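Aim 2 progress update. The chain analyzed this quarter is reproduced below.
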Amino acid sequence: MKWKLTRRFLVSVVAIVVIVGIVNTILLLCLIFVHIDTEEQSAENFSRTFSQYVELKDNKPIVNEEGLEKLRNTNAWIQFLNNKGEQVAAFYTPPKLQTMYSPVEIVQMYKYKEVDAETTVFAGAAHDFSYFIGVKDKKIGRYVMTYDYEKVFKIFKALLLLFLIVDIIIAIVIGFLFGKRLTSPLNILIEGIQQLRERRFKRMSIPKGVYEDVFRNINELSVKLDQYEKERDQLDQMREEWISNVSHDMKTPLASIHGYTELMKDNATDLTPQEFYEFTSIINRQSIYMKDLLDDLNLTMRLRNQRLPLQFEDVDIVGFIREMTIELLNDTQFGERHVEFEANVDKATHQVDKKLLKRAILNFIYNALVHNEENVVMKIQIDDIGPQSELHTQITIADNGRGIPAKDLEQVFERYYRGTNTASAHGTGLGMAIARDIILAHNGKLNLTSVENEGTTITILL
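Predicted structure tokens:
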């Protein structure tokens, strides 16, 4: 993979160089062979078309006024010659200009700068007379070149091939050095992604450069996936433990039900009414426990998947929780417990599902009473948060009991978790998770703080 990326990069660089070389060559040829309107060609055209300003007078050529004006504006002179090379007329010519030319001198006069270094001479014809026009302008020049087409194209092809080879070699060297630096991080990235695919979450060193953000994001993703993987493993482990506990809890009442029904079937005629009542009570109690367990399973699954429709109604939270506290104290099991109720607001009306909210709050209260000593002090307090927040009412349930170990705090509300410091294994292990999900279903917030051997505080915001 490493050399594959480098090879592709090199091929791309070489292809670009070849294409650019070909395009530049075509443009160069166009510049050489396509007609370009240069200053020299303008002077050439001026000289060749100057015959329109030449007239005959007494069989001698003269230049009309417009032509003379053109000569002055162009800083040029004109010299007319007959067929013998003798001067027959001249306008604005320099003083030392010769007046008679041989054929060779005529050719040299046209090809080279014979007058001075700044004057270029052009030739033309008018009315059977030849003429020289000299343009004095250092920007204008003429270059005469003799060449063989075949040799020129051979040299051109050789030079083109040489340039391409040199350019390709340079491109390969530079492309290799640059490509190696460019593709090395990509190879590390590809290896890192393969590690993520294989669930090997390893942080990579972050290089400086264009890939810095990519490496940083990959590392963050690796950390997140590693965290999710550990959470999933932990969740699977807790689920397996919970299933094992539920299976055990289901087997115990089933065994009781099965045993007592067998006993009643085998000794139906020998049982006293008292024994019959006792056996049926046990069967009834165990069946109720199994029903509660299955109901909790069904409720937690529906809450988790948001499949439980809530029956909202306007409820005064202060009066609602006060009644719950009174019912709790009237219960013979908790009648002697120390439970305080304090409301710092007269009335707090919210739209809630009374049945589910009551179950959630009672679950928190029962946990505080059941999992602590009988002398535990529990306080239920209701406060008004104020209009500055979307959440208006705060319900606090605090106790001074044994608290929750720090290692258990993060897992208290897990659906498959049962506390390690509980004195009894009774219960399905779903109560706190159900209570948490009920509060969240009401768009509320839940917070739990606890210090071991000092107590636990649960805060509900509605």
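The longest strand covers residues 119-126. DSSP finds eleven helices and 13 strands in the chain. These observations will guide the mutagenesis experiments scheduled for the next reporting period.
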